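Practice problem. Given the sequence and the SMILES for fe (ii) ion, write out the predicted structure.
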Amino acid sequence: MSAATRMPRNGPIRPRHPTFDLEEALAGDWNGGSAFRTAFFNAMSLSFPSGERFFIDAVREHEEEVRNPVLRGAVRGFIGQEAVHRRVHAAYNETFCRRRGYDLDELEAPFLEGVRWSEENLSPLARLAATVALEHLTAILAAALLDGRAGSLAGADPRVAELWRWHAVEETEHKSVAFDVYAVSGGCPKRLRQTLKYTTFNFLRDNFRAVRTMLRHDGHGPEVFAGGMWYLFGWPGILRRLIPEWTTFLRRDFEPPNEGDAALVAGWHPDPAMVSFAPDPARRSRP
Ligand SMILES: [Fe+2]
Ligand SMILES: [Fe+2]
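Answer key:
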């Protein structure tokens, strides 16, 4: 990794400020009427408020190492986008738990515990490495969601689908920022490869635990969870299909690829009936 070459590759990064009305949609199985697919996405959302705070803190701790003004701007954009994601997903989580009768504290506890453990046991650079690895995971999930490759939102309620597309677009926009900060902070590529394996394991373990709790609460038997595993890893295999992209991270010369990102972002046309955006406060305050 040559620190001199590390520059943001996706243009300026700016947080959007969306408002969604998901009160009714989140009360039911919003993702194509599928209990498993709904629980899988809801479980991902449960990890975001604590996980994205962890990402922000990990990057912020190394902000002083960043000398390049363009990358400094990208770091501010990254922090701004993740901060809005946290807030929107905290509201999403509160809504679906209240409407479905889930115990939000119980569901969130393992995610909070994972973050607490990392903060107490990992060095700042190891926490940044975990952020880089999880940003890679997020970026490949986001690309698959935006290009509709495996139909992960097929038949989804359009309001909720719009929220997931907004988040996926911003993950695509800022996907190389943590990697670039890690590089200028002297992070070791070998550590990244090891970190991707354990962060992926933890991500799946915590997600599936929350999915099982929610399915049990709704009275579903183990066959629904088993069917979901087939959906993820068998056919259509929305996670199985990501394995080739996941493994690119393990190559010694890995850098976040940006081919196709601009098209993914430009291909998103938010429906004003499903989401509204407040003006960017940074732009608003300018004369
Ligand atoms: Fe995010
Ligand atoms: Fe992110």
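Check your answer against the key. Strands lie at 17-19, 276-278.
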